[in-house]
Amino acid sequence: MFEIVLGTNNRKKGLELSELLEPHEIAVKTLADFSEKLTVQEDGETFIDNARKKAREQAIFLNRWVIGEDSGLCVDALDGAPGVFSARFAADGVSHNVSANSSDADNNRFLLERLADIPLEKRTAHYVCTAAVADPTGEIRCESKGLCRGRILFEPSGTGGFGYDPLFEVIEYHSTFGALTPAVKRAISHRARAMRSLIPLLLEVLLNRAFR
Q1: What is the pTM of this model?
Q2: Which uninterrupted H or E stretch holds 75?
Q3: In angstroms, rounded to a whole number, what is the distance separating the alpha carbons of residues 30 and 178?
Q4: Nearest C-alpha neighbor of 148 from the set 167, 171, 166, 174
Q5: Structural contact between residues 71 and 127, judged by C-beta atoms closer than 8 angstroms
């Protein structure tokens, strides 16, 4: 089987991608499978900047094909914030410095504070995920993007997921990401949509490579 590395230490993300790629005889590893790994500073101005950087640098370091991905929350009333600062919004999302991530609880609390005077109908938001594939030389060979639209509630609902999931309501499901079942979330999430869009592009790249 062809092998590709998902540039994350999160094995659950790797298992989700494995389910999608296994029928195509592509095996997935994560950074957790390697004793030596690279820490990539996510200092890009956009999600795709970070995804490309993670894919490129990890691919060169590991000498393998790598999928880099970056994702976050964009709130319309905050002009797209927290955006690429989603993981560190409470810590330094305002000053836009790159530093250690803040906790999910602090990020959620800070988001609710920023939206305190915003009515429900104006609390629209979307999750975004971008993904990029680099070959062992670091060349970006394909990339994709996935969105999931919703809105931010006034208080958390549900204990599942992570990040802003307990606040992010998918309106059609009348439920937050934190309250949805894992199977439903995997079907409609921004990450799942980005990866499903990436697969045919990746397969085309690999097919062209095979016939060179």
Answers
A1: 0.89
A2: strand 66-75
A3: 24
A4: 171
A5: yes
Residue 106 burial (CB count, 10 A): 14
Q: Tokens representing 161?
A: 């997921």
- The CA distance from 199 to 205, in Å, is 10
The strand ranges marked E within 7-52 are 26-30
Least confident of 141-145, 150-154, 187-191: 187-191
Phi, psi (deg, nearest 5) at residue 2: -70, 145
Place of tokens 């009515």: 119
117 is catalytic: no
d(CA 154, CA 152): 7
d(C-alpha 48, C-alpha 10), whole Å = 19
- Does 13 or 141 have the greater pLDDT score? 141
In the block, residue with structure tokens 């590709």: 4
Question: If residue 71 lies in a helix (H) or strand (E), which one and from where to where?
Answer: strand 66-75
Q: Answer yes or no: are the C-beta atoms of 139 and 194 closer than 8 Å.
A: no
Quote the distance between the C-alpha of residue 43 and its chain's center.
Answer: 15
3-class secondary-structure state, position 89 = helix
| Beta strand pairing call for 2-6 and 66-75 | parallel
Do 191 and 71 contact (CB within 8 A), yes or no? Answer: yes
Containing 88, the helix (H) or strand (E) segment is none
Active-site option among 70, 79, 104, 117: 70
Q: What Cα–Cα distance (Å) separates residue 193 from each residue in 131, 140, 156, 172?
A: 10, 20, 24, 17
Average pLDDT over residues 165-190: 94
